[in-house]
Amino acid sequence: xxxxxxxxxxxxxxxxxxxxxxxxxxxxxxxxxxxxxxxxxxxxxxxxxxxxxxxxxxxxxxxxxxxxxxxxxxxxxxxxxxxxxxxxxxxxxxxxxxxxxxxxxxxxxxxxxxxxxxxxxxxxxxxxxxxxxxxxxxxxxxxxxxxxxxxxxxxxxxxxxxxxxxxxxxxxxxxxxxxxxxxxxxxxxxxxxxxxxxxxxxxxxxxxxxxxxxxxxxxxxxxxxxxxxxxxxxxxxxxxxxxxxxxxxxxxxxxxxxxxxxxxxxxxxxxxxxxxxxxxxxxxxxxxxxx
Length: 291
Hints:
The protein is α/β, with parallel strands linked by helices. It is 27% helix and 27% strand. The protein is built from seven helices and 16 strands. The chain has a six-stranded mixed β-sheet with strand order 5-4-3-2-1-16. The chain has a six-stranded mixed β-sheet with strand order 8-9-10-11-14-15, covered by helices on one side. α1 packs parallel to α3 (68-80).
């Protein structure tokens, strides 16, 4: 590995209803990733708990300053001298609301970036599954970029994937890498996960790091898994299945320059307005030229 490259690892999980059990699983897998040479490690969305019922969720979560999982992850990043990206934690911000928060921790154990998921997953699926993320979570208002030693990272979470303007904004803000930790449903993942991840990579000339939840969870939910690392040309460099484990690839930032040089769409983007056609046609009256 040259100085210009680095090893990125994704931790695929199957989070349940017990935050301590989820923490133990994450710590073990992060340690394995470091032992295999990882420089940057990302965990999936809802690393600390995957719970839909309000009562169960709020009985288990805490504000950021007292969250036991976060304290452990900060110490672990410091101990392992690792850039540790916790894909998201459910963090209590009031008696009735939480945030779905992604946290980037540096090798000193300091939190260097926080991102609250902007787009809430409020959908009814064809198989009868129904989700109302906005019932428990308050959406964020800001896109976030943070500097890594190898380039700038844009932070997003799961359902954000379906809103390409967010990713173009992050790329225009200098992001070379796009983080998309997720707990994609099995149904939507089978249909759209790969094509959307590859599209976000291609249209922005960025690497994609997407750690995922996978399999049948304790609360009965099925998630798609298939954690992905995608290069700026849309090629899949590494992929998981549905089982907990580690997905790794060596990342060469020079691939970003190469891809953007071949298709310089970031340089060609133009701002524009959308207009509606006039309700009635304009009739031009013939005017005789003066003599």
